[in-house]
Amino acid sequence: MTQQPFSRPGAIDLSGLSQPAPGAGAPSASGSYAVGVTEQNFQEVVEASLTAPVVLVLHSPSRSPESTTYADDVATVVAGYEGRFLAGLVDVDHAPQIAAALQVQQIPVMMVLVDGRPATQPIPGVLRSDELSALLDQLAQQMTAQGIGGRHQPRSNPVDVDGDGEPDYDPRYAAAQDALGDGDIDRAVEEYQKLVTANPADVEAAAGLAMAKVLQRTQGVDLNAARAEGAAKPDDVEAQTMVADLDMLGGHVEDAFNRLVNLVRRTTGDERNAAREHLLGLFAAVGNDDPRVLKGRRDLMSALY
């Protein structure tokens, strides 16, 4: 297999998706890290690549049944990376406008999205599982070298063992929650970090860790002094992220997001990356399904490009 260059070419043109086909059905996607992509949720899947890479596979059950088998195989390989990638399976029979927006000429074809943009040239045809793993390993290494280590949330539902319609209590979180109850923020961070280290795809633990770190960073901080410093230093990453943390604690979630989005827009280089990473941490604390986070991700993408 020829190695694909890792790059950041132009953003995807979504103009062709302004009027989704009515009644288009959603293709099925199996696995915790796979999603069936439709014209309605395509923008959301593209935005998910702000967190971690998205592996898009375009296939057609009617024109090429083997392409659909290949899409399922890609989802299986992606699942082994436990959130480092998300497989987005596009049934072009149901979503022809996506194929048009991506200028796809043949089926199957695979491409990897990072930060809302293609990170590789389109890869036509069927790759063997070992070839696909080699490609994803290479991309994962390059992303790690660039300091990008985000992971996707699993797409499976919480377990409801007793059938009462509510996710069952998980004792794994007891130690961290007890620490928070005792006001021991440092211990809570340690307990949540243990859970995240053991399973980086544990969304609840990651959210708990992110929020515990907000509490940890703001311990003993003088609110008025921090806000005064933020007003005096509008482009200082440390000052602005502190005010954003305080906004989060005060329940002003959108203010926190907007502050850091605007900081990303005004900064460059390491400062921009630090602001972006801090904002992604606040997204994790709130939860990726929250409407405020979905809007924040769209605003972040606009600020980056």
How would you describe this structure to a colleague?
With 305 residues, this protein is α/β, with parallel strands linked by helices. It folds into 2 domains: 15-145, 3-Layer(aba) Sandwich (Glutaredoxin); 172-304, Serine Threonine Protein Phosphatase 5, Tetratricopeptide repeat. The protein contains 12 helices and 6 strands. The protein has helices spanning 42-48, 65-79, 96-101, 129-145, 174-181, 185-198, 203-217, 223-232, 237-249, 253-266, 269-286, 291-304; strands at residues 34-37, 54-59, 86-91, 109-114, 117-118, 123-124. Strands 1, 2, 3, 4, 5 and 6 form a 6-stranded mixed beta sheet that branches. Helix 7 crosses helix 11, helix 9 (237-249) packs parallel to helix 11 and helix 10 packs antiparallel against helix 11 (269-286). The longest helix is centred in the last third of the chain and has 18 residues, at 269-286. The chain is globular and about 65 Å long. It starts with 33 loop residues before the first strand and ends with a helix.
SSE topology sketch:
Layout: E1 34-37, H1 42-48, E2 54-59, H2 65-79, E3 86-91, H3 96-101, E4 109-114, E5 117-118, E6 123-124, H4 129-145, H5 174-181, H6 185-198, H7 203-217, H8 223-232, H9 237-249, H10 253-266, H11 269-286, H12 291-304
Parallel strand pairs: 1-3, 2-3
Antiparallel strand pairs: 2-4, 4-5, 4-6
Helix pairs in contact: 2-4, 5-6, 6-7, 7-11, 8-9, 9-10, 9-11, 10-11, 10-12
